[in-house]
Amino acid sequence: MSKKQVIAVDIDEVLMPHFVDLITWYNAKFGTTLTEYDNHPTDPGNWGTDDVTVAIKRVHQFYDTQEFMDSKPFKEARKELEFLGSYYDLIVVTARDTILEAATTDWISRHFKELFQSIHFTKHFNLEGQRRDKVEVLRELNVSYFIDDSLANIDLAAAAGIQSVLFGDYAWNQADVLPKNVTRCKNWLEVSDYFEDILSARLVDSQIKRPTISHEELVAKLKRDGLL
Ligand SMILES: [Mg+2]
What we know:
2 domains, alpha/beta, single chain, elongated, binds magnesium ion
Protein backbone atom coordinates (compact mmCIF):
# COMPACT_ATOMS: atom_id res chain seq x y z
CA MET A 1 0.00 0.00 0.00
CA SER A 2 1.14 3.50 -0.81
CA LYS A 3 2.62 5.45 2.09
CA LYS A 4 2.28 8.78 0.35
CA GLN A 5 0.32 11.48 2.12
CA VAL A 6 -3.09 12.26 0.66
CA ILE A 7 -4.25 15.57 -0.84
CA ALA A 8 -8.02 15.97 -1.22
CA VAL A 9 -9.14 18.38 -3.94
CA ASP A 10 -12.56 19.98 -4.41
CA ILE A 11 -13.99 20.34 -7.93
CA ASP A 12 -16.22 23.40 -8.28
CA GLU A 13 -14.24 26.65 -8.25
CA VAL A 14 -11.05 24.68 -7.60
CA LEU A 15 -10.61 22.39 -10.60
CA MET A 16 -13.07 24.38 -12.70
CA PRO A 17 -15.08 27.61 -12.60
CA HIS A 18 -18.73 26.85 -12.01
CA PHE A 19 -20.78 29.29 -9.96
CA VAL A 20 -20.70 32.29 -12.28
CA ASP A 21 -21.85 30.10 -15.19
CA LEU A 22 -24.59 28.64 -13.01
CA ILE A 23 -25.99 31.96 -11.79
CA THR A 24 -25.78 33.56 -15.24
CA TRP A 25 -27.94 30.71 -16.57
CA TYR A 26 -30.19 30.69 -13.47
CA ASN A 27 -30.83 34.46 -13.48
CA ALA A 28 -31.75 34.38 -17.17
CA LYS A 29 -34.10 31.43 -16.71
CA PHE A 30 -35.77 32.33 -13.41
CA GLY A 31 -35.54 36.14 -13.37
CA THR A 32 -33.42 36.28 -10.22
CA THR A 33 -30.50 38.59 -9.42
CA LEU A 34 -28.05 36.15 -7.87
CA THR A 35 -24.49 37.37 -7.47
CA GLU A 36 -21.22 35.75 -6.50
CA TYR A 37 -22.08 36.43 -2.85
CA ASP A 38 -24.86 33.83 -3.09
CA ASN A 39 -22.49 30.88 -3.36
CA HIS A 40 -22.67 28.25 -0.60
CA PRO A 41 -26.21 29.38 0.35
CA THR A 42 -27.98 28.43 3.54
CA ASP A 43 -31.19 30.27 2.60
CA PRO A 44 -32.99 29.84 -0.77
CA GLY A 45 -34.53 33.37 -0.67
CA ASN A 46 -32.36 34.88 -3.40
CA TRP A 47 -32.98 31.83 -5.58
CA GLY A 48 -36.54 33.00 -6.26
CA THR A 49 -38.26 30.48 -4.01
CA ASP A 50 -38.77 29.79 -0.31
CA ASP A 51 -38.50 26.07 -0.93
CA VAL A 52 -34.99 24.62 -0.89
CA THR A 53 -36.18 21.56 -2.83
CA VAL A 54 -37.45 23.76 -5.66
CA ALA A 55 -34.15 25.65 -5.80
CA ILE A 56 -32.16 22.42 -5.90
CA LYS A 57 -34.33 20.97 -8.67
CA ARG A 58 -33.88 24.17 -10.69
CA VAL A 59 -30.12 23.94 -10.30
CA HIS A 60 -30.28 20.31 -11.45
CA GLN A 61 -31.62 21.56 -14.79
CA PHE A 62 -28.35 23.40 -15.34
CA TYR A 63 -26.48 20.11 -15.17
CA ASP A 64 -28.26 18.97 -18.33
CA THR A 65 -27.01 21.92 -20.36
CA GLN A 66 -24.26 21.62 -22.94
CA GLU A 67 -22.57 24.57 -21.30
CA PHE A 68 -22.10 22.59 -18.10
CA MET A 69 -20.96 19.45 -19.95
CA ASP A 70 -18.37 21.51 -21.84
CA SER A 71 -16.86 23.17 -18.73
CA LYS A 72 -13.10 23.35 -18.87
CA PRO A 73 -10.64 23.02 -15.98
CA PHE A 74 -8.68 26.02 -14.76
CA LYS A 75 -5.54 26.65 -16.75
CA GLU A 76 -2.51 25.05 -15.08
CA ALA A 77 -4.58 22.71 -12.88
CA ARG A 78 -3.60 19.59 -14.80
CA LYS A 79 0.10 20.45 -15.01
CA GLU A 80 0.44 21.39 -11.34
CA LEU A 81 -1.53 18.34 -10.21
CA GLU A 82 0.77 16.11 -12.26
CA PHE A 83 3.66 17.59 -10.33
CA LEU A 84 1.88 17.02 -7.00
CA GLY A 85 0.95 13.48 -8.04
CA SER A 86 4.67 12.58 -7.98
CA TYR A 87 4.77 13.20 -4.26
CA TYR A 88 1.26 12.64 -2.98
CA ASP A 89 -1.82 10.50 -3.53
CA LEU A 90 -4.50 12.72 -5.04
CA ILE A 91 -8.21 12.23 -4.46
CA VAL A 92 -11.31 14.29 -5.23
CA VAL A 93 -13.80 15.17 -2.49
CA THR A 94 -16.78 17.08 -3.86
CA ALA A 95 -20.10 18.24 -2.43
CA ARG A 96 -21.76 17.26 -5.71
CA ASP A 97 -24.78 15.04 -5.61
CA THR A 98 -25.42 11.46 -6.72
CA ILE A 99 -27.13 12.61 -9.91
CA LEU A 100 -23.82 14.08 -11.04
CA GLU A 101 -21.65 11.02 -10.33
CA ALA A 102 -21.48 9.73 -13.90
CA ALA A 103 -20.96 13.16 -15.50
CA THR A 104 -18.34 14.07 -12.89
CA THR A 105 -16.39 10.83 -13.20
CA ASP A 106 -16.41 11.24 -16.97
CA TRP A 107 -15.28 14.90 -16.75
CA ILE A 108 -12.43 14.03 -14.36
CA SER A 109 -11.15 11.21 -16.55
CA ARG A 110 -11.45 13.37 -19.69
CA HIS A 111 -9.40 16.23 -18.24
CA PHE A 112 -7.22 14.60 -15.60
CA LYS A 113 -6.87 11.03 -16.89
CA GLU A 114 -5.68 8.77 -14.05
CA LEU A 115 -4.32 11.52 -11.81
CA PHE A 116 -6.92 11.02 -9.09
CA GLN A 117 -7.13 7.71 -7.27
CA SER A 118 -10.75 8.10 -6.24
CA ILE A 119 -13.72 10.50 -6.25
CA HIS A 120 -15.93 10.97 -3.19
CA PHE A 121 -19.35 12.66 -3.28
CA THR A 122 -20.58 14.25 -0.06
CA LYS A 123 -23.95 15.20 -1.61
CA HIS A 124 -24.35 18.51 0.18
CA PHE A 125 -27.69 19.32 -1.50
CA ASN A 126 -29.03 15.76 -1.70
CA LEU A 127 -32.82 15.56 -1.54
CA GLU A 128 -32.84 12.10 0.06
CA GLY A 129 -30.92 12.88 3.21
CA GLN A 130 -27.65 11.30 2.10
CA ARG A 131 -25.54 14.35 2.80
CA ARG A 132 -22.19 13.78 4.52
CA ASP A 133 -19.76 16.23 6.10
CA LYS A 134 -16.64 16.79 4.07
CA VAL A 135 -14.48 16.75 7.18
CA GLU A 136 -15.86 13.37 8.24
CA VAL A 137 -14.91 12.01 4.80
CA LEU A 138 -11.46 13.63 4.96
CA ARG A 139 -10.81 11.98 8.30
CA GLU A 140 -11.96 8.57 7.09
CA LEU A 141 -9.62 8.83 4.12
CA ASN A 142 -6.70 9.96 6.29
CA VAL A 143 -6.27 13.16 4.29
CA SER A 144 -3.22 15.29 5.14
CA TYR A 145 -3.95 18.28 2.89
CA PHE A 146 -7.27 19.71 1.72
CA ILE A 147 -7.86 22.20 -1.12
CA ASP A 148 -11.30 23.86 -1.22
CA ASP A 149 -12.85 27.27 -1.95
CA SER A 150 -15.44 27.16 0.86
CA LEU A 151 -14.45 29.03 4.01
CA ALA A 152 -16.80 26.89 6.10
CA ASN A 153 -15.25 23.65 4.83
CA ILE A 154 -11.74 24.98 5.28
CA ASP A 155 -12.43 26.21 8.82
CA LEU A 156 -13.82 22.81 9.81
CA ALA A 157 -10.94 20.92 8.23
CA ALA A 158 -8.40 23.21 9.90
CA ALA A 159 -10.11 22.70 13.25
CA ALA A 160 -9.77 18.95 12.66
CA GLY A 161 -6.00 19.45 12.26
CA ILE A 162 -5.87 19.09 8.47
CA GLN A 163 -3.50 21.45 6.64
CA SER A 164 -5.72 23.35 4.24
CA VAL A 165 -5.49 25.53 1.18
CA LEU A 166 -8.27 28.07 0.73
CA PHE A 167 -8.43 28.18 -3.05
CA GLY A 168 -9.16 31.36 -4.99
CA ASP A 169 -9.85 34.93 -4.06
CA TYR A 170 -13.60 34.90 -4.42
CA ALA A 171 -16.46 37.11 -3.23
CA TRP A 172 -17.69 34.19 -1.12
CA ASN A 173 -14.44 33.26 0.60
CA GLN A 174 -13.09 36.55 1.92
CA ALA A 175 -11.79 36.57 5.50
CA ASP A 176 -9.81 39.00 7.64
CA VAL A 177 -8.01 36.22 9.45
CA LEU A 178 -7.46 32.59 8.54
CA PRO A 179 -6.65 29.76 10.97
CA LYS A 180 -2.90 29.20 11.23
CA ASN A 181 -2.92 25.92 9.32
CA VAL A 182 -4.77 27.54 6.39
CA THR A 183 -3.09 29.24 3.44
CA ARG A 184 -4.92 31.06 0.68
CA CYS A 185 -3.69 30.20 -2.81
CA LYS A 186 -5.27 32.30 -5.54
CA ASN A 187 -4.53 29.88 -8.37
CA TRP A 188 -2.80 26.60 -9.18
CA LEU A 189 0.63 28.19 -9.53
CA GLU A 190 0.36 29.37 -5.93
CA VAL A 191 -0.78 25.90 -4.87
CA SER A 192 2.30 24.48 -6.52
CA ASP A 193 4.56 26.98 -4.71
CA TYR A 194 2.87 26.10 -1.40
CA PHE A 195 3.68 22.40 -1.80
CA GLU A 196 7.16 23.05 -3.15
CA ASP A 197 7.92 24.91 0.09
CA ILE A 198 6.62 21.97 2.11
CA LEU A 199 8.66 19.49 0.06
CA SER A 200 11.77 21.64 0.28
CA ALA A 201 11.45 21.75 4.06
CA ARG A 202 11.59 17.96 4.03
CA LEU A 203 14.95 18.15 2.30
CA VAL A 204 16.71 20.32 4.86
CA ASP A 205 18.46 17.33 6.42
CA SER A 206 19.74 16.06 3.11
CA GLN A 207 21.31 19.43 2.20
CA ILE A 208 19.67 19.32 -1.20
CA LYS A 209 18.42 22.57 -2.60
CA ARG A 210 15.24 22.13 -4.63
CA PRO A 211 16.22 24.00 -7.79
CA THR A 212 19.40 21.97 -8.26
CA ILE A 213 17.66 18.67 -8.96
CA SER A 214 14.84 17.58 -11.24
CA HIS A 215 11.46 16.45 -9.99
CA GLU A 216 12.37 12.86 -10.83
CA GLU A 217 15.62 13.06 -8.86
CA LEU A 218 13.77 14.64 -5.96
CA VAL A 219 11.23 11.80 -5.91
CA ALA A 220 14.03 9.20 -6.04
CA LYS A 221 15.88 10.92 -3.21
CA LEU A 222 12.79 11.19 -1.02
CA LYS A 223 12.05 7.49 -1.61
CA ARG A 224 15.60 6.48 -0.73
CA ASP A 225 15.33 8.47 2.48
CA GLY A 226 12.00 6.83 3.30
CA LEU A 227 10.19 10.16 3.06
CA LEU A 228 7.76 9.08 0.36
MG1 LIG B 1 -16.08 24.27 -4.37
